[in-house]
Specification:
Elements (H helix, E strand, L loop, with lengths): L1 E4 L3 E4 L7 H20 L6 H26 L4 H29 L8 H20 L4 H22 L10
Antiparallel strand pairs: 1-2
Helix pairs in contact: 2-3, 2-5, 3-4, 4-5
């Protein structure tokens, strides 16, 4: 590009000065990105994830155990609702297990799928017997045993003495 000046005629203007502000902005953005990346902003803090996961696992399992323990003291009218809550707590543990598998792959599996399948089968059996008016004491015992086993597996795993998949 040329520009006319009165004293010297036509004068060449350098085009490289036009892109200088854009380059400065891009360099500043790149430097900010690298600083934030080095500081860990926007990334997953593995220690924080594991602490949150462990807290949630303990909470869900403790709620499931307390709900199962209160089943024997409930009347038939609220037992079905309590079974729904137990199913919800077990599902919460299963979701955390699946999330851990998503984060770490199969090596991150905390519980085998058969653990959850067995618990859901006992809950369904309990609900079916309750609806048909059959004796539920043996199913309540089975449910209590399997939930306590889940609690024991969780305690052992979170205390750091076991990191492998637990089988039922």
């Amino acid at each position: 590009m040329t520009r006319y000046t009165r004293s010297h005629g036509y004068h060449n203007v350098m085009r490289s000065h036009r892109y200088r502000p854009i380059l400065i902005i891009l360099l500043v953005l790149l430097a900010a990105f690298l600083i934030f990346k080095a500081a860990g902003v926007g990334g997953i803090n593995e220690g924080n994830y594991e602490a949150q996961r462990n807290t949630r696992l303990r909470s869900e399992v403790q709620h499931a155990v307390s709900s199962v323990n209160s089943l024997s003291r409930l009347g038939a009218s609220s037992t079905s609702a309590m079974l729904g809550r137990i199913r919800q707590y077990v599902h919460g543990v299963e979701v955390l297990n699946d999330l851990n598998v998503g984060m770490y792959g199969e090596i991150g599996r905390l519980y085998s799928q058969s653990t959850f399948d067995a618990i859901y089968a006992i809950i369904e059996e309990y609900d079916a017997k309750l609806a048909s008016g059959q004796n539920i004491s043996d199913t309540l015992t089975s449910l209590s045993e399997v939930i306590n086993e889940l609690s024991d597996m969780t305690t052992v795993m979170l205390d750091g003495t076991q990191t492998a998949v637990s089988e039922t």
